[in-house]
Amino acid sequence: MKIKIITLFKEMFIPFLETSIIKRAINNNLVEVELIDLRAYANDKHNHVDDTPYGGGVGMVIKVDVVKRALDANKTNASKVILTTPKGKTYNQQIVNSLAKEKEIIILCGHYEGFDERVCQYVDEEISIGDYVLTGGEIAAMVIADSVIRLQKDVLTKGSYEDDSFQTGLLEYPQYTRPFNFLGSEVPQVLVNGNHEEIRKYRLYESLKTTYLRRKDLFSKYELNQEEQEMLEKIKKEALQTTK
Ligand code: 6GU
Question: Which residue, judged by its Cα, is nearest atom 3 of ligand 1?
Fold first, then answer.
């Protein structure tokens, strides 16, 4: 997969691309990332990429002609163009899974007060990473790139994302490592007994319980099997007991 990022602040991406798993994925050619300077597509002598808003108001608006030239120069038939904007569709794992299958994505990073509305006709998808406002789309672009890159083949060890929170539809079970006893707090015995079926049940139960206590809304999209239904009944009863 190739990810092209069109931005006025390429330098923000350097530590992100040169660290840990993302760096290794790039070095192993599992993904290609290209940073594109939007300013290179300005066409006046002062390299303006933005202008004051029609109708007045504060801030600057990114010009549609500059964006169009940047896209024309970098788009291929395979490109899926994403605009980062707080007005976009809220990003989630379902969108990540679908973007991860693309051959090429182009992420357009917003800045200042946003884009000329006419930019929207040149993009395939508008994405927001949550209900809060950032100074620009660069951090959102990194969120998108990171979440998509980790799903590319061979980036993570096999199986390591299948149990992710949100990948299954439930929140993840708790994990522990040494020491067994830390200041009197011990690792659950079931995890050290080596009974894989018991461990599977324990983890499923804990996933359901955490989801029930923290994110009940996730159950509306999750289909419980018989075993899970029985576990959830038990969790609900226990939750009632502890509030009494
Ligand atoms: Cl994609 N951009 C900006 N500027 N703010 C945001 C966002 C994006 N997503 C949430 N807040």
Answer: 134
Q: Is the dihedral of CA 170, 171, 177, 180 positive or negative?
A: negative
Enter the tokens of residue 220.
């509306």
Q: Are 123 and 117 in contact (CB under 8 A)?
A: no
Respond yes or no: is residue 162 known to be catalytic.
no
Q: Which amino acid is at 162?
A: E
Q: What residues contact residue 238 under an 8 Å CB cut-off, 6+ apart?
A: none
Place of tokens 């080596």: 194
DSSP structure class, residue 125 = E
238 is catalytic: no
The active-site residue out of 50, 86, 126, 206 is 86
Say how far apart CA 107 and CA 120 lie, in whole Å. Answer: 13
Q: Collect all residues with Cβ–Cβ distance below 8 Å to 145 and sequence separation of at least 6.
A: 3, 5, 16, 22, 33, 107
Q: Would you state the pLDDT for residue 161?
A: 85
pLDDT in tens, 26-75: 999 999 999 999 999 999 999 999 999 999 999 999 999 999 999 999 99
